[in-house]
């Protein structure tokens, strides 16, 4: 198996009085796409937020590129080359698309300072970002906001992209656009961890799959093998790909 870029070992997370993660062991291979699946409430979003330091692990270890990041603050984790797109996308509605992108391009003081070649590449992936460049982000459709959220996450080179339910509520044409974009990112060597409920989306994109249930990892393996095992899918997810 490829070198692991991200490695969670025995991670527990408490939120107030609630014990959400119960010893999660999750490995994400470098330059591949790992799907994190599971029923609602299984602990997927909590896992992502724990990786990003938004919630602190109460026990266990999170390692990135061989470095222990368990106790780092979220800005420190982001500076290591990890980008996170939450389920709510985190768009600044009152700012324009350009201003949203500029906030994420930390090395740039003005939009003219953003790497031109990289911006052109992002416009090819997500034409709506260019089309609505000077429009308030709050006026965009749900699909356009999701495109902006991912575009913002990759406006600077990242080693790891973490995205929570990118296809949620999107039209099929937008989902296909997202699939193409993530495939292009993967081809450029970006490691990707996706939480997803759309199993067709997961099957078309994933190299690896990890399944959570009740705060624990209950399955990990190759997506191709998981896609062929209908009984396993039904046992773990209650449905089949």
The value of Rg in angstroms is 18 Å
User: Helicity level, as a percent range?
Assistant: 25-40%
CATH homologous superfamily title of the domain at 1-80 and 193-241:
P-loop containing nucleotide triphosphate hydrolases
Enumerate the spans where pLDDT stays under 50 for 5 or more consecutive residues. none
Instruction: Spell out the helices and strands N to C.
Output: EEEHEEHEHHHHEHEHEEHH
Strand numbers in spatial order across the main sheet: 6-7-8-3-9-10
What share of residues are in beta strands? Answer: 25-35%
Question: Helix/strand-derived class?
Answer: alpha/beta
Q: What is the overall silhouette?
A: globular
- In the CATH classification, which architecture of the domain at 1-80 and 193-241 applies? 3-Layer(aba) Sandwich
Separation of the first and last Cα atoms? 24 Å
Number of strands: 10
Mean pLDDT: 93
Q: Strand count, sense and closure of the main sheet?
A: 6 strands, mixed
> For the record, what CATH class of the domain at 1-80 and 193-241 applies?
Alpha Beta
At the third CATH level, what is the topology name of the domain at 1-80 and 193-241? Answer: Rossmann fold
Number of helices in the DSSP assignment: 10
């Amino acid at each position: 198996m490829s070198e692991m870029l991200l490695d969670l070992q025995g991670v527990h997370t408490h939120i107030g009085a609630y014990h959400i993660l119960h010893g999660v062991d999750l490995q994400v291979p470098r330059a591949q796409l790992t799907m994190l699946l599971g029923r609602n409430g299984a602990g997927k979003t909590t896992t992502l937020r724990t990786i990003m330091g938004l919630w602190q692990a109460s026990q266990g270890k999170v390692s990135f590129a061989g470095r222990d990041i368990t106790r780092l603050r979220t800005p420190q984790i982001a500076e290591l080359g990890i980008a996170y797109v939450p389920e709510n996308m985190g768009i600044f509605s009152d700012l324009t698309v350009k201003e949203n992108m500029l906030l994420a391009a930390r090395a740039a003081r003005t939009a003219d300072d953003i790497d031109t070649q990289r911006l052109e590449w992002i416009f090819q992936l997500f034409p709506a970002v260019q089309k609505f460049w000077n429009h308030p982000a709050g006026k965009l459709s749900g699909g356009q906001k999701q495109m902006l959220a991912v575009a913002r996450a990759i406006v600077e080179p990242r080693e790891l992209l973490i995205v929570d339910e990118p296809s949620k509520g999107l039209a099929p044409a937008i989902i296909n656009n997202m699939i193409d974009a993530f495939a292009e990112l993967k081809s450029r060597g970006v490691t990707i961890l996706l939480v997803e409920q759309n199993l067709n989306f997961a099957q078309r994109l994933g190299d690896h799959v990890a399944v959570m249930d009740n705060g624990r990892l209950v399955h990990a393996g190759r997506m191709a093998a998981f896609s062929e095992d209908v009984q396993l899918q039904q046992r773990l997810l209650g449905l089949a790909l």
